[in-house]
Amino acid sequence: MTNKRITHHPILGSLDKQSTVSFTFDGKEYTGLENDTIASALMANGVRTLRKHEFSGNPRGIYCNIGHCFECRVTVNGKENIRACLTPIVHDMVVESGQVQPSPLDPTNEVLPKTYEDYEKMGGNQ
C-alpha cells in the first residue's frame, strides 16, 4: 500500500489513533481510516482515477472534493452514481470504477442516491 496520508497536522493533531477500515476498489483491497470518505481513502492509497468520462472515455478523478462537481462518481455495493467525496467508507464496502456512469443531470434518469447514507435509506444493502 502506498501511504500518501498526512498523519500529523499542526492544527488537527495526530491521526495515528484512529481505527482502520478495509474496503475494495476494483477488486483490490485497501484500508482507510474510520470516517474517511471513499475519495480521501483512495487518495491516501495513491488512487487518482475513479471512472471514465461519459462521452470521451477520458479518466476522471477527484476534482472539487466537496460534492459540487460529480466527477468522483463510483459504484458502491452495486449501486451506481455514488459520489466518493461525500460517502464514508464502511468495512467490506465494494467500490468499483471503470464503468461509464449515467449523467446525474439527465432528467430521464431515475432518482439516484448521492451518498451511501441515501443509498441505505432507499433500501440498499439489505
From TrEMBL:
One of its GO terms (molecular function) is iron-sulfur cluster binding. Keywords: Oxidoreductase. Gene3D superfamilies: 2Fe-2S iron-sulphur cluster binding domain, sarcosine oxidase, alpha subunit, N-terminal domain. It comes from the Bacteria. CDD domains: fer2. InterPro entries: 2Fe-2S-bd_N, 2Fe-2S_ferredoxin-like_sf, 2Fe-2S_ferredoxin-type. It holds the Pfam family Fer2_4. This is (2Fe-2S)-binding protein.
